[in-house]
Design brief:
This protein is mainly alpha-helical. The chain has helices at 6-15, 19-30, 34-49, 52-70, 75-89, 92-102, 107-112, 117-132, 137-147, 154-162, 170-190, 197-221.
Length: 244
């Protein structure tokens, strides 16, 4: 029997914790007040995604430095992958702002909102690991985010439930199409890299943290009182509930 590949080993580890984010997202979309929850979801995803391309660019820079300074065999292929993926993900934060605008949200208020601690925990850990350990850590983060794409029919279902215009679901529908290919790319990368046991441990720590942080975000979004999102027309929130 052939030994498991690096990608298969990471997939196996993640399979043990998939119930967390899957259960949290299912509960979120079954909850009441779907319009308010969807707007809060878009705001949170914007807060996450606007940090992703800068993370990839910084990790690519650090990978190049490692290749040049330490003859790190991971450096050059990792930098190439990260730069290519950064191009694929470019402007997705702007897509989300356009979706929010189509839903009537005040995008200026969205940009000015302080990201909550669970968003900072999700992305901030990656800053620490790529700066103070190795940029390979970001691949674990990417594998999880790409592996949790919206379901193919989610946009259509939410459009019916929320009454929002089709233009408010552009990013959800695009990621449902695109992310399957992206997750295949990231796992293919892992099987071309000369990973050590220590490297695989770093990937697992990063990926499992990402799963835990994503689950916390979706649990928050699924609470009874969704976070208020100001509307462009009135300046009033879409919900009278308190913070999510």
């Amino acid at each position: 029997m052939s030994p498991l590949t690096a990608s298969a080993r990471l997939r196996a580890k993640l399979s043990l914790v998939e119930a967390g984010p899957h259960g949290a997202t299912a509960a979120l979309w079954r909850a009441d007040r779907p319009r308010e929850r969807y707007l809060a979801y878009l705001v949170t995803m914007h807060q996450v995604i606007r940090g992703s391309v800068p993370l990839m660019e910084r990790a690519a820079e650090l990978a190049d430095r490692a290749a040049a300074r330490d003859a790190d065999p991971l450096g050059a292929p990792l930098a190439r992958y990260l730069r290519a993926h950064a191009l694929e993900e470019a402007d997705h934060d702007l897509w989300l702002l356009e979706d929010l605008a189509a839903a009537g949200a005040d995008t200026g208020a969205v940009l000015g909102a302080i990201p909550p601690p669970d968003v900072a925990a999700l992305t901030g850990a990656q800053h620490y690991w790529i700066e103070h350990h190795h940029p390979l850590a970001l691949v674990g983060y990417i594998a999880v985010l790409e592996g949790h794409a919206p379901a193919a029919l989610l946009g259509a279902v939410l459009a019916r439930r929320t009454g929002l215009p089709e233009a408010a679901f552009r990013t959800v529908e695009a990621h449902a199409r695109l992310d399957a290919g992206h997750v295949d790319d990231v796992y293919a990368l892992l099987d071309t890299l000369p990973l050590t046991g220590r490297d695989e441990a770093l990937l697992a720590v990063s990926a499992l943290h990402t799963v835990d942080a994503l689950t916390s975000i979706f649990v928050r979004l699924g609470r009874r009182a969704p976070a208020a999102v100001p509307l462009r027309e009135t300046g009033r929130p879409t919900s009278t509930g308190g913070p999510g």
